[in-house]
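Predict fold of ARG and Rhodanese-Phosphatase-superfamily-associated domain-containing protein; 397 aa.
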Amino acid sequence: MTRIDLAGLTPRAAQVWGGIRLVPLVRDEPLEGLRLHREAYGAPGLAPDSVDLGGGVQYTSYIPHGFVADWSGDDAAPGTGPGPGPGGESAAYGTQLGGVPARRLPLRHHRMAKRRRPEKRVRFLPLHLALEGYLALHFGGPTTVWDEWSREALRRGLSPRAEDAYAGGEVRGLGEALRIFEIHPGQCGVMVYASDALAAAFVVPHPEDYRALHPSLLQDLYGELVHQYALFGAPVPEFAARISDAGRVRTLADLRAAAREQERSWREAHDSLMARDLLETPYVFERVSRMGAFALHRFLPPFHRGQREQHIGELITDHKGRTAYLKTFRLSENQIRRGHLLRRLADCDGHLERTAEALGTSYEDLVRRIRSAGFQSLLDEHAVARRTREIRRARKR
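Predicted 3D structure, encoded as tokens:
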């Protein structure tokens, strides 16, 4: 698996509110065998939570909720609470559009994805699972000790690293769009666009899960680029179906066929233009947990410079490779640039001169780029200064 496959999910006509465009994703049949529900951990505005990742490493962020994936085969009625017993946690429950959690759980977070035994369930922290993978990119530093790398970096890698994000409630127009737009029969996901730039994709296995988790998009994290697009972007055009009366529409059957052709054209335009970068980008997937016939992954893009958009995220697939769950976070150009730099350093095992050669630049320029990316703690300044003098003397000879 190298790409995201949305087979079985059909995009419906977009709904527009100002600069926000929501594209519903509908399944003909729910994906059987998996259900998702939400655990609320606190109210907006509370202090950030910490997650113990093991090995003395902690991840700290605003974490409003977790998702629980249940593959037990139980099928409780919608709205069932999370009590013990068969079916007790199968159905999604407990979200409110106002952003107030329906339930507080005094839970000490341990790991981004935690299996719950003996039940067939995994609790994971949506988006934070993916962001931790991005923040910890090549966390341990080079395997060989080069003079240019500081001892602190070799011991602790890139810790600490920090990234800024906005809650969905701060993305202009998103709250109103989620509140006023209808949820389609069979809807299992949505594509969120800000000024027609893909901000996020969200997919769940069952329509009842989506109805309960739809408001959670307001508490998800969105990058600075998405926030700016929504704040400064102009309103986008609404979807409009136009059927030409050229003598071909004479009966209700003709009209129905013409309407279906408009729907087909919309789907093709969406997949080939609006969602192309998300669906055609090759990703590096890391399996986090196996859940019976399902598997939870997080993924990173190739960090190619110049590509218009790149996303990180999480994905649950079944044994056929079909997407049961998907949540994405769009990276900014600066985040892509830092990821690209770290990838190249890792490919060259942290050797600065080899990395500079691979990037087609000079040793001094690479050091400058490392510092401007905020990774100056990786460098042993005395070793870098000594090597820079040696290179300059060699040029003068």
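The chain has a mean pLDDT of 83.
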